[in-house]
TrEMBL record:
Keywords: ATP-binding, Kinase, Membrane, Nucleotide-binding, Transferase, Transmembrane, Transmembrane helix, Tyrosine-protein kinase. Its EC number is 2.7.10.2. InterPro entries: AAA_dom (IPR025669), Bact_polysacc_biosynth/exp (IPR050445), GNVR (IPR032807), P-loop_NTPase (IPR027417), Wzc-like_C (IPR005702). It catalyses: L-tyrosyl-[protein] + ATP = O-phospho-L-tyrosyl-[protein] + ADP + H(+). Residues 452-523 form the Tyrosine-protein kinase G-rich domain. Gene3D superfamilies: P-loop containing nucleotide triphosphate hydrolases. The keyword Transmembrane helix applies. Belongs to the CpsD/CapB family. The chain crosses the membrane at residues 28-47. This is non-specific protein-tyrosine kinase. It holds the Pfam family AAA_31. It comes from Salegentibacter agarivorans. GO terms for molecular function: ATP binding; non-membrane spanning protein tyrosine kinase activity. GO terms for cellular component: plasma membrane.
Length: 800
């Protein structure tokens, strides 16, 4: 049928009600209790069977030799210039050495950690370590064969069973192969030659069996290299903390202590090796330098004897000192001469009344006194002249004195210049004489100086090497460890794992989280209508008049007379709610026609139709149930012979049939309930419903009965229900919980808005008890025999 398309009317958005969301999970509280109990039990079992792990710590200070400069043995090379720019190892390099495979291998070998002893008890095996009553000594082990044994699962673990004080048996725990041997004697077990000895620990009569496990050395080294953690307490410090987590405290302490011992031992060996090599190098160089020094001293002696030389160096120094003195005096005389020339030029070029410069550094005291007197006269004249004229007798007298003093100064400067020229010539002559004396020194003196220089170099180097040899000998005799132990290895009293509090909290959280996740995912993935809330959210425009509970398979689907079941109570509530809807239909002369339809088949419209008719009939009302689903009639589920009788389709197709002849009584004991079957399945149901007789039929039935319950066809699949819905006073739209998809509810909303349904209301069928709304689940079974607790608990815990 052609239908008008409408834009879907989406449900109104509502704020989330926290209480409602919480109720979705609280109603499954038995699941949470069961989940918590199970997880706590598993947590307790895990705690019991898990071997506790303890953290062992040790702290050391790595001597920061970088800040102190090179070590004493390396300092010899550094002072010689062989290690220029090269510093000591950094802290990071030292950490790398401690982490190295070499050191860990030495540690594992020293402690025999590739051989492990266990005490088999219950679900877990406890490592004995030093408390083992037996000790295995490996004389020779083929690592490659052992790895193959492990890969092929041939067994690397053996049970030790003493047979007597001298004999024992080793039993392979995987292959059950038995090796017999004697204590203290060599025994070959395939991949190793071993000896077994008693350690002195007495075996108890009921003590569990002791086993020994052989592991490849590389595997054990790799395990503990990964297990040992190192941290610097501060970036600027060299305090290093070592951590190791292991189930055996004593074992972890021995590993850390032995690792530090091996590190110090290796550092001392490295230092001693450097010191030994340094001593050999110094001794070799001393021997060579001693021979060279002897040769230089003999050559010096021969040179002085051949050239009859004394202390030529002292004589040369004296000549040089005199030459320096004369040069200094030449500079002073030249300076005074320049000053004299400058004063003469100034005196001759200036006016008589100008002042002369004083304090120029002229060493002639007489000249300085004359210049001072001259300047005093000039100043006096200028002072008097400022208050009188040139004709003043005092001014004239002062002018005469100034001219006389000016001449005296000029004569004194001329005389001083002459004296300085004479002195300069004398100094030049003396300097030339001393220069000739210095240049006259024989070239042999320079040869002598070369010989003496070589002697001094060899002597200094010889003394330096002697000093370094003593320092190196002292360093070789006293070698301090590189790592200072701050705290020897110690273990925490409490295990780091497993922690009871963490396991308990995790178990509780997991016990709550697992059922919560299941319920959440179930609700998230569920696209079916489950409860009243789903209907109200998806189709708020259509009222819900009834909720029909799910009927267990062993219970009847029909409402019986004087029935006190939950099903019967649900239909009674539906009947009550229908009374309010019937009031809206107005005054009618005849009965009320109630259509029952659904979206698709299988939603329970026939069950609702039949049980509603029975419920109405139980109120002493005359009720007729009409089979209006002409295509797939289902009334035979409740009336076995319904399909064998003529009915609605026959009446609509045959004008000769009378309606009252087609109505039949039902199989129920209620005389108020009658049935009009659907009749023969026609090829054209839609054409039959369009006939005028359809309206006549419903009008006639309303006159005959108080209620006419019409079981119609599904609305989404065929148009039959829409064709006849105009004759309905009330239309009940059945939605099956857990079956009808939420998106199909929009079809009912759109059909109502299009006017295709008259007075439409929802009936929610097959609802679980836990999903009933408005407290229905509390009151339906009032007065009914109470079910056992486990049965009620199962119903509450039912999720699916």
């Amino acid at each position: 049928m052609s239908q008008k398309k409408h834009t879907p009317n989406r449900p109104h958005e509502e704020e989330m009600n926290f209480r409602e969301e919480l109720d979705k999970y609280l109603r499954f509280w038995p699941w949470f209790i069961i989940g918590v109990i199970i997880c706590v039990v598993f947590g307790i079992v895990y705690f019991k069977i898990t071997t506790p792990q303890y953290v062992t710590k040790a702290s050391i200070i790595i001597k920061d030799e970088e800040s102190k400069g090179p070590s004493s043995e390396m300092a010899a090379f550094a002072d010689l210039g062989f290690l220029g720019g090269m510093g000591a190892s950094s802290i990071e390099n030292e950490i790398g050495i401690i982490r190295s495979k070499t050191l860990m291998t030495k540690t594992i070998k020293a402690l025999d950690l590739n051989i492990t002893y266990y005490e088999e008890s219950g679900l877990k095996a406890e490592e004995l370590y030093s408390a083992s009553p037996f000790k295995v000594t490996v004389l020779q082990m083929e690592e490659e064969i052992l790895r193959n044994v492990i890969n092929e699962e041939l067994g690397n673990r053996f049970a030790i069973r003493p047979k007597s004080k001298t004999n024992f048996e080793l039993i392979n725990t995987q292959t059950d192969e038995i090796f017999k041997g004697e204590f203290g004697k060599v025994l070959n077990i395939g991949f190793a030659d071993i000896t077994l000895e008693n350690t002195g620990f007495e075996l108890e009569a009921k003590r569990p069996e002791v086993t020994v496990q052989f592991s490849p050395l590389e595997a054990v080294v790799r395990k503990y290299r990964e297990g040992v953690q190192m941290n610097l307490t501060d970036k600027k410090s060299s305090l290093l903390e070592l951590h190791l987590e292991d189930p055996v405290k004593e074992k972890a302490q021995d590993i850390l202590d032995q690792l530090i011992l091996e590190y110090n031992r290796q550092a001392i060996e490295d230092k001693n090796l450097v010191a030994t090599n340094t001593a050999a190098f110094i001794d070799e160089r001393l021997s060579i330098i001693n021979r060279e020094l002897d040769s230089v001293e003999v050559g010096k002696e021969s040179f002085k004897e051949a050239n009859q030389l004394t202390d030529i160096q002292a004589e040369s120094e004296l000549f040089i000192e005199n030459a320096s003195e004369y040069k200094k005096r030449q500079q002073e005389v030249g300076t005074q001469l320049e000053l004299a020339n400058a004063m003469l030029e100034h005196l001759k070029g200036n006016r008589p009344i100008d002042l002369l410069p004083a304090n120029l550094g002229i060493q002639e005291s007489g000249v300085n006194e004359m210049i001072k007197e001259y300047n005093t006269l000039v100043l006096e004249r200028n002072r008097i002249l400022s208050a009188s004229t040139e004709e003043n007798p005092v001014v004239l007298r002062l002018n005469s004195q100034i001219d006389q003093m000016r001449g005296n100064v000029l004569q004194s400067l001329e005389r001083m210049r002459s004296n300085l020229l004479i002195a300069q010539k004398d100094l030049d002559r003396q300097a030339a004489l001393i220069g000739s004396q210095i240049s006259a020194i024989p070239s042999k003196e320079r040869q002598y100086r070369g010989i003496e220089r070589q002697q001094n170099i060899k002597e200094a180097l010889y003394l330096f090497l002697l000093e370094k040899r003593e320092e190196n000998s002292l360093s070789l005799a006293v070698t301090a460890p590189k790592a200072k132990i701050v705290d020897s290895a110690y273990s925490d009293a409490e295990p780091t794992s497993p922690k009871p509090s963490i396991i308990l909290v995790a178990s509780l959280l997991l016990g709550v989280l697992i059922p919560f996740s299941i319920i959440y995912l179930k609700n998230l993935l569920n696209n079916k209508v489950e409860s009243r809330e789903d209907l109200e959210k998806q189709a708020k425009e259509i009222p819900l008049v009834g909720e029909i509970p799910r009927v267990e398979k062993k219970n009847s689907e029909m409402v019986l007379k004087n029935d006190r079941s939950v099903l019967a109570e649900a239909f009674r509530i539906l009947h009550t709610n229908l009374q309010y809807l019937i009031l809206n239909t107005g005054d009618k002369s005849g009965g009320n026609t109630i259509f029952v339809t659904s979206t698709v088949k299988g939603e329970g419209k026939t069950l609702v139709s039949f049980n509603l008719a029975v419920t109405l009939a139980n109120t002493n009302k005359k009720v007729l149930i009409v089979g209006a689903d002409l295509r797939n009639p289902q009334l035979q589920r409740f009336e076995k012979d319904a399909r064998q009788h003529v009915g609605v389709s026959d009446y609509l197709a045959n004008d000769k049939l009378l309606l009252k002849d087609l109505i039949r009584s039902t199989n129920s004991d209620n005389p108020n309930l009658e049935l009009l079957p659907s009749g023969t399945i026609p090829p054209n149901p839609s054409e039959l419903w369009r006939r005028k007789k359809t309206g006549e039929m419903f009008r006639e039935l309303e006159k005959m009965y108080d209620y006419v319950i019409v079981d119609t066809a599904p609305s989404l699949l065929v148009t039959d229900t829409f064709l006849i819905n105009k004759w309905a006073d009330i239309t009940l739209y059945v939605v099956r919980a857990g079956y009808t998809e939420k998106k199909l509810l929009q079809f009912a909303v759109d059909s109502k808005e299009d006017g295709k349904f008259h007075n439409l209301s929802f009936v929610l069928n097959d609802v679980k008890l836990v999903n009933f709304g408005y407290g229905n689940k509390y009151g339906y079974a009032y007065g009914e025999e109470k079910k056992p607790f486990l049965k009620r608990l199962f119903n509450k815990a039912s999720i699916f």
